[in-house]
Structures are given as structure tokens and as C-alpha cells.
Amino acid sequence: MASPDYPSSELEAGQISLPELGKMFKMQTDEKTGFLKKMFSAGAPVIAIAFAELLIFSGRIKEAALTYTLLLIILSLSIMVSKKMEIRKVHQALILLPILRMVNISMPIFFESNLYSFVFIYVPMTIPATIISIHQKIPGERKVDLLRKMWIYLPVSVLAGLIFAEAEYLLIQTSPLIPDLSPINLLELTIIMIFVVGLIEEFIFRGIIQTRLEEFLGPVGGILLASLLFGIMHSSYGTPYEMAYTFLAGGALGYLFYRTKSFSLVVMIHGFINIFLFGLIPHLGPGLGLI
Asked: How far apart are CA 97 and CA 217, in angstroms?
């Protein structure tokens, strides 16, 4: 931050005394120090998460689990001993990611990677996420507003979901999570992808983490950092292109959430992305078989 530019004539005339000028410089120094402390408080856990995900990306699961365990302990201690409420709230929000990954990598090996494995990963996350959201008084969306806007949300979500999914499919060529496109299979896929995966991931990344980081770092910093974490946490796909893409997609969802304050809208878009990506496109082909 640049120092104030006061003409020497004002100093000479006594309009600004040297003690006052010293106070101004001290205020600027305090602001810089406070900003650096904020960046460290939010940045250090993000760097640790990125390091752990890099270990997962390289196939070193045990080392990643150890890193996440240490981070979980450090964030827990910070939440208990930190004197600043804003730092405690940020660390409460970020602690959800080590918990999510530990639940993910701790699943018994006899569970195959299928549609129902998402239930075992995400449903347990409702407990810590709900506790944190209640403690931090995360604002919710009124049901009246949701019902009134559903006629807009539904077509927008389907169209946005298809566009995002088509682009993502080009990067990772997903396999279908359902054996065919029967009504029962599509219903199961829709319920799990919207009301389990989409709901809980958006609750964690946009509803809690982004909301808290926006208050801590401002809208731009909050959206960027939450989106970065969203991209990093997709390291298990094993391709940097997927992480880069989900960072951009997370940024789009984060900005949409910031502008509309509609949690339901981003949940529906996220859900439809997964419905197309893991159901319709793998079975029908890119362009849903119409191209």
C-alpha cells in the first residue's frame, strides 16, 4: 500500500504534524500485517490440502492420509485456542475437506466404485457440515423463493448442466454409473446426484467455505480460493486437466452463487452436470447422440 502523498508545504505549515504522520504510517503497517495474517490463516491450510491432494494424485495414499490426519489435528487445535473468531470460523469451514477426504479414502475396499459408493462418502458429511453451518449461522434460502423461481431454475440447470458435462466428458471420458437408461436407473441417478452429491458438495464448498472466505478475504478472494479447493479436491481423477476444469467450473458456480444467493440453483446445476456426465452422455455419446 502506497504511503500518503502530502506536500512538504503542508508539513512545513504545521497542518500535518510529525506525530500524526507517524500514526498514519503505523495504521498502514497494521493493515499490511493484518492482511498477511489473514492470508497465512487461510493460505496455510489450503497449501496443506494441495500437498495432500498432490500425494493422492501421485498414488501415495498412505502419505496423503497422514498429511490429512496432521492437518485435522492442527485445525482442531486452532479452532480451540485461537482468540479471533473469524479465524476459528475459517478453520471450522476448511476442516470439512480433511474430513471429506478421510471418509473417502477410509471406505472399506470391498465397496466397488459405483453409484451407491457416493452415498457412503457423502451422507456421513451431513453431520459435521450441519453442525458447522448451525454454529456459524450460515444463511439459507427461503422455500417461498425457491418454489417461485423453480420454473426458471429447472431449465437453466438442465441446459447449464449439459454444457458443463459435455466439456468435462471430453477431458475424462467417464464410464456410466448405471447399467442402462431405464426409468428406475435414471431416477436413482437423479436422486443421488442432486440430493446427495450436488447438495452436500455445494453445501460444503459454496454454502460454508465460500461464504466464510468471502467474509474473511472479500468476494474475489473467497470465490477464487473456494474454487481452487474445489478443483484440487478432484485430484483423484488423475489428470491435471480435470482439476483445472473443475476449478473453472467451481468459479462459475461460485460467482453464480455470489450474484444470486441461490443455493438451490447451484445444487441443481451441479446435480445435472453429474447426471449427464455419469449417465446420459456415456450411454448416448457426446451431444446425447444427436450430433
From this structure: 19
